[in-house]
Amino acid sequence: MAAFDIEISEVGPRDGLQSIQTIMPLEAKKAWIKAEFEAGVPEIEVGSFVPAKLLPQMADTAALVDYARTLEGLTIAALVPNFRGAQNAIDAGAHKISIPLSVSETHSLKNVNRTHDQMIEEVTKIAAYIQSLPKEKQPFFEGSLSTAFGCTIEGPIATQKVTEIAERLMKAGVNEVGLSDTTGYATPNHLVTLIKAVKSAVGEENLTGLHLHNTRGVGLANVVVALENGITTFDASLGGLGGCPFAPGASGNIVTEDLVYMLDSMGLKTGIDLEKLCAVRDIVQKALPQEELYGFLPHAGLPKGYPKGYQTTSS
Amino acid sequence: MAAFDIEISEVGPRDGLQSIQTIMPLEAKKAWIKAEFEAGVPEIEVGSFVPAKLLPQMADTAALVDYARTLEGLTIAALVPNFRGAQNAIDAGAHKISIPLSVSETHSLKNVNRTHDQMIEEVTKIAAYIQSLPKEKQPFFEGSLSTAFGCTIEGPIATQKVTEIAERLMKAGVNEVGLSDTTGYATPNHLVTLIKAVKSAVGEENLTGLHLHNTRGVGLANVVVALENGITTFDASLGGLGGCPFAPGASGNIVTEDLVYMLDSMGLKTGIDLEKLCAVRDIVQKALPQEELYGFLPHAGLPKGYPKGYQTTSS
C-alpha cells in the first residue's frame, strides 16, 4: 500500500466473466490480466474456484492463478464458495481468497444451498486449514458480506443482521470483512450507515474494502462517501463487464476506468496509468466481440490539458 | 422551497432539445412539461430565447412559456443569451431567466461573439430593465458561470477567474450566480474548491444552484459533495437527453430520474413522484423515437420493497 492511497481490485475476470455466456479462452484471460498488471493494477481477482459444471467460464481458474504468479508484485485474488474451493485456490497459489456470505439467508440457501450456520462452519474449516499451513503459504482470507444492502428475494436487510454476520465471520477466523452490494441497491447514506455499523462491530481496521455495482447509477457517488468514511480498497470491473445487455449504461460492477479517473482527479494515488488502463479495453473487446463495454471516461476522453489545473486534493 | 429540501430544475426541454437535430413539435413539448409538472417537478427550463435561425429547436419558446403559465405553481425558467432575449423572455412571462457567461473568454467569443466586458454590459442592461418593471413582473435573474470547470478550447480555468466573473455578475445586478459544468469536466474535489471559493466571493446565499453534466460518469458523485457544501438546487435532464449517440451511457446533463432516486434514498425531499417521473419517458420517447434515453434507475427499477428499510437520512 506504500505506493498508493487507494487500492483497486480488478474483478472483471471473475465477476464480469461469470455473468456472461461466452467462455473467454485462457490465453485471452492471460493477456487481459497481464495488460492490467502492466497498467499498474495491484490486485486482480482472476476467477472463482467453483465446479466447472456450474460455471464453465471459471473452469481454468487454477491455470490462471498459476500464470498470474509470474507477474511479480501482483496480488492474486480468487473467490471461493466453500472449503473445497478454498483448498483448491490455496493449492493453486492464490494470495487472497474471498468467501461470500449472503446476509440474506434466503439468498444463501438459493445461491449455495447453505444456511448461515453451515456457511460459518465452512469459514471455520477454511481458517483452520490456513492456520495449518506454513506462514508463506497462508493467503489473506476475506469474508464478504453479500446482499448487505438488500436482497432481490427478501427485500431490505436490517443493519443488525449485517453486523451480526460480520462478527460471526471475524470470530470464525477471517482476516477482514468486506461489504458487498451484490444487488446494486446501495445508496450513499445507507452505505455510510452500514460502514459505520460494521466498523463499530468488528473494529475500524477490519473493514477496508467495498464491492459496489453501478446498477442504479450511484456507484461513484457511493465511492465518494466511502472514501470519507475510511474505505481504502474498491473492487471494480474493466468496462463494467457483466452489465445487462438490455439496459444501456447499466453496468454491473463499477467501471474501473471511471473509478480510477475520479480518484485520480481527487489527487488520490492508485498507481494505475489511466491511458494504459483504457487501452486494455481493446484486448477484452477483441476477445468478446459481442459484449458491450461500458464506461463514460473511455468514450468522452480526458479533459483538455488534464491533469494540470484539474487535479485537486481534498479540501 | 417549504415542501422540499432540494429543488430540481428540469432542463431537458432546453439543454436536451437544443443538443439534438430533431425539432420536437410544440404539442409534444407541452405534454412533456405538463407530465413533469404533474410528477411534482417544481421548476422547468422550457427553452431559450435565441434567434430561430440559430436554434430552430427553440423557435416556439414564447408559446411554451405562455402555455406553462397555465400550470399553477410551476416556476418557468428560460435561458437568455443577451438583452434582446431577456426582454422577450420577460414579455412572454418567464419567472426566472438565466444568462450564461463563459468564464473562458475564448469560449465566450466563439459561442456568442462577445468579450467578458460586453457580456457584463448586457447583464447590466437586463438588470436595469428588470428594475424598471413593476415588482410582480420582475423575474428572478441568474448569472450562470459556464465553462467554470474547464474549457474545451482553453483547457483548465483558474479558480480566481471564476470568482472574478462571479463578483462582476453580482455587481452587474444578477440575483444569484450558478456554477455550470458545460464541458462535463467537474470532479468532486475541484467542485468543492469552486463552491467554497465562489461562496466566499459573493456570499453563501448567492450560490445555491449547480448545472452538472455526466459526461465522464461522475455527475452524481459531484451531487453528493455539492450537497455536503450547501447546494440546494440542481439542474437535470429527463433521460439525460442530449447525450452523445456515439457513447453508450454518456448522457449530457445528469439524468433527472437517477438524481431524484439518489436524493430520495438519502431521505431528501424533492416533492417528485419517482414512478410518475419515470413514466414521462414514454411521452418523450414517443415524440423522439430515434433518440436514446439514458438513465440507470428506469432500466433497473427500484429495489425490492423500496422505500421501506432503504431510505436513510444523513448520518
UniProtKB/TrEMBL annotation, chains A, B:
Which residues are in the Pyruvate carboxyltransferase domain?
6-278
Q: Which PROSITE patterns match?
A: PYR_CT
**Source organism, top-level taxon:** Bacteria
Q: Which UniProt keywords apply?
A: Lyase, Metal-binding
Supply one GO molecular-function term: metal ion binding
Answer yes or no on keyword Calcium: no
Q: Which GO terms describe its biological process?
A: ketone body biosynthetic process; L-leucine catabolic process
The record's annotation in InterPro entries points to: Aldolase_TIM, HMGL, PYR_CT
Family annotation (Pfam families): HMGL-like
Q: Record's family?
A: Belongs to the HMG-CoA lyase family.
Q: What is this protein called in UniProt?
A: Hydroxymethylglutaryl-CoA lyase
State the species of origin: Temperatibacter marinus
